[in-house]
């Protein structure tokens, strides 16, 4: 079974890591702080820079909860259109900018640098707005010697999307003036004690590993869950934001201090290439990023298809549990004709797991069994 996320296991941690994630980050950034979630980090990063009533421009192709910190700060979230290759539609950005625009967000999707960034940055500069680099997907990606997330005035990265940890994110302040205005809230930093959430996370990881390796138990659990009727609904965007208003857990900090970023990047890249070999020759699916430049650590393997449901069903039948469409768009954007491309992309882009605990041979086995 290929799961969506890596499971926590002490065997992947090492006491004497020559290079761990914190020391890796220190090489590239002089000013970063840990948080429980990227959304909490974004809230803190912006709080000292904005006044209620101002607006922030964000791409339409974005998960619904990302704008919650903006609402919390009394800001308007103004969505701009994106292009087929996920680059910002600069004409649309410019059309939506006004005197109340305080910041504009770019996104490094799926571990890759934002296409069209240079032009985007000069536009943001011209209008004297802050540039927020949403780097939730790309904590370990280095593009031409620069760590992704450090190109904006402020940047936000989610560590929990790459590591087997209960929570964890980073706020980068890449500009001295921004750093001076940062007044860290109670969500900044690392919790002092291990908590119940840490224990629950470890327990869930043990159960998940058991289910992954034991087909009989997994089927019984699946049958049991199916017999309980429709699954529990996803909490609202604001509930998810509120849940992330916390410092990073002690367990997350421990994993960050005992994980080799190079090992993670190498493993994810190998798995990316394994999916690419399977997908590239097929006519019904299109590889979103054909090139995986050196230094890039993919969060997932994104592909585009006009038959997403069929592809997902085939993948599930072949043992891929963690593939899905991305993202769940805001209700302002979804099916709004103004943002038709974002809606189409959210239906047609599928993300496949490449995490560091998948053996590339498991992906190759899937490739041998897929009908397309
Ligand atoms: C593009 C993007 N930005 C920001 C976030 C928010 O990150 P976090 O869940 O750590 O708050 C997410 C999370 O899904 C995301 O996908």
Write the layout of secondary structure elements.
Elements: H1 21-28, E1 32-35, H2 38-47, E2 55-59, H3 68-72, E3 76-80, H4 90-96, E4 101-107, H5 117-126, E5 130-134, E6 142-143, E7 146-147, E8 154-158, E9 169-173, H6 176-180, H7 196-213, H8 215-227, H9 237-243, H10 250-257, H11 261-279, E10 285-287, E11 300-305, H12 308-317, E12 324-325, H13 340-348, E13 349-353, H14 360-369
Parallel strand pairs: 2-3, 2-4, 4-5, 5-8
Antiparallel strand pairs: 1-9, 6-7, 8-9, 10-11, 11-13, 12-13
Helix pairs in contact: 7-8, 11-14
The structure holds pyridoxal-5'-phosphate.
Concise account of the structure shown:
This protein has helices at residues 21-28, 38-47, 68-72, 90-96, 117-126, 176-180, 196-213, 215-227, 237-243, 250-257, 261-279, 308-317, 340-348, 360-369, and strands at residues 32-35, 55-59, 76-80, 101-107, 130-134, 142-143, 146-147, 154-158, 169-173, 285-287, 300-305, 324-325, 349-353. With 372 residues, the protein is an alpha/beta fold. Strands 1-9-8-5-4-2-3 form a 7-stranded mixed β-sheet, sandwiched between helices. The protein has a 4-stranded antiparallel β-sheet with strand order 10-11-13-12. Strands 6-7 form a two-stranded antiparallel ribbon.
Report on this model:
The structure is a single chain. With 372 residues, the protein is an alpha/beta fold. The protein folds into two domains: 18-181, Type I PLP-dependent aspartate aminotransferase-like (Major domain) (Aspartate Aminotransferase, domain 2, 3-Layer(aba) Sandwich), CATH 3.40.640; 261-369, Aspartate Aminotransferase, domain 1. It is built from 14 helices and 13 strands. It has helices at residues 21-28, 38-47, 68-72, 90-96, 117-126, 176-180, 196-213, 215-227, 237-243, 250-257, 261-279, 308-317, 340-348, 360-369, and strands spanning 32-35, 55-59, 76-80, 101-107, 130-134, 142-143, 146-147, 154-158, 169-173, 285-287, 300-305, 324-325, 349-353. Strand 4, helix 5 and strand 5 form a beta-alpha-beta unit. Helix 7 (196-213) crosses helix 8 (215-227) and helix 11 (261-279) runs parallel beside helix 14. The longest helix has 19 residues, at 261-279. Bound molecules: pyridoxal-5'-phosphate (PLP). Pyridoxal-5'-phosphate (PLP) is lined by residues 37-39, 62-63, 66, 107, 134, 136-137, 158, 169, 244.
């Amino acid at each position: 079974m290929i799961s969506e996320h890596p499971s926590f296991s002490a065997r992947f941690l090492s006491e004497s890591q020559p290079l761990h994630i914190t020391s890796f980050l220190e090489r590239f950034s002089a000013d970063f702080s840990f948080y429980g979630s990227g959304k909490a980090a974004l809230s803190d990063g912006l709080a000292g820079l904005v006044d209620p009533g101002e607006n922030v421009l964000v791409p339409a192709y974005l998960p619904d909860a990302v704008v919650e910190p903006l609402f919390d700060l009394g800001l308007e979230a103004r969505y701009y259109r994106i292009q087929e290759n996920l680059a910002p539609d600069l004409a649309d950005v410019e059309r939506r900018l006004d005197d109340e625009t305080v910041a504009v967000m770019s996104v490094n999707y799926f571990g890759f640098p934002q296409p069209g960034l240079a032009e985007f940055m000069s536009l943001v500069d011209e209008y004297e707005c802050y540039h927020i680099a949403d780097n939730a997907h790309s904590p370990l990606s280095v593009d031409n010697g620069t760590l992704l997330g450090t190109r904006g005035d402020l940047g936000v990265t989610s560590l929990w999307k790459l590591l087997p940890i209960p929570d964890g994110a980073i706020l980068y302040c890449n500009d001295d003036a921004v750093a001076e205005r940062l007044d860290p809230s109670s969500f900044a930093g690392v919790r002092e004690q291990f908590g119940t959430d840490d224990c629950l996370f470890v327990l869930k990881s043990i159960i998940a590993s058991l289910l992954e390796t034991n087909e009989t138990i997994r089927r019984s659990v699946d049958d049991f869950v199916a017999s309980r009727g429709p699954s529990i609904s996803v909490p609202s965007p604001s509930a998810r934001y509120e849940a992330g208003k916390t410092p990073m857990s002690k367990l997350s900090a421990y994993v960050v201090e005992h994980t080799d970023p190079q090992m993670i990047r190498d493993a994810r890249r190998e798995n990316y290439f394994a999916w690419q070999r399977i997908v590239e020759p097929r006519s019904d699916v299109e590889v979103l990023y054909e090139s995986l430049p050196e230094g890039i650590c993919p969060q997932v393997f994104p592909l585009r298809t006009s038959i997403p449901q069929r592809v997902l069903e085939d993948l599930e039948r072949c043992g891929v549990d963690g593939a899905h469409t991305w993202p769940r768009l805001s209700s302002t954007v979804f099916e709004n004709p103004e943002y038709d491309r974002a809606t189409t992309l959210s239906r047609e882009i599928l993300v496949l797991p490449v995490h560091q605990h998948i053996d590339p041979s498991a992906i190759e086995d899937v490739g041998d069994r897929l009908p397309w």
